[in-house]
Amino acid sequence: MTVARSILLFVLAALAEIGGCWLIWQGWREHRGLWWIAAGVVALGAYGFVATLQPDANFGRILAAYGGIFVAGSLAWGMVVDKFRPDRWDMIGATICLLGVAVIMYAPRATP
Fold it and tell me: Which of 5, 42, 49, 71 is deepest in the core (most CB within 10 A)?
């Protein structure tokens, strides 16, 4: 249950962070206005709080692992929202990042 909860929290964090960045991008680069930017700022703030709900107590470990989720999530966002088509190198890189997440977060560790 803890791993499933952790993965769900990573997905929620990715949606908040990537979505927030995308909203700011749309507001600024696509000239959609300040409300889009404001929504992006709120979403980015939500990302910061979601990260605190991870069951692991080590900030550095969580943020390092989240980096891999961010990479894969960004490609997935681009595919769904912007119709971006990643090439095989994008997919290989994302797979490597997700393997890193698994090692960092879910490898068995000796308890002190």
Answer: 71
Do residues 17 and 47 lie in contact, with contact meaning Cβ atoms separated by under 8 Å? Answer: yes
**Under a CB-based contact definition with an 8 Å cutoff, are residues 78 and 86 in contact?**
yes
Residue 73 tokens, joined: 């999530």
pTM of the full predicted structure?
A: 0.89
Q: Which tens digits make up the pLDDT trace of 73-97?
A: 999 999 999 999 999 999 999 999 9
CB-CB contact of 94 with 72 (8 Å): yes
Looking at residue 87, the DSSP 8-state letter turns out to be: -
Do 97 and 42 touch, CB atoms closer than 8 A?
Answer: no
Using CB atoms within 10 Å of the CB of residue 80, give its burial: 0 to 12 exposed, 13 to 18 middle, 19+ buried. Answer: exposed
CA distance 100 to 67: 9
Which residues 6+ apart lie within 8 Å of 77 measured at CB?
18, 19, 22
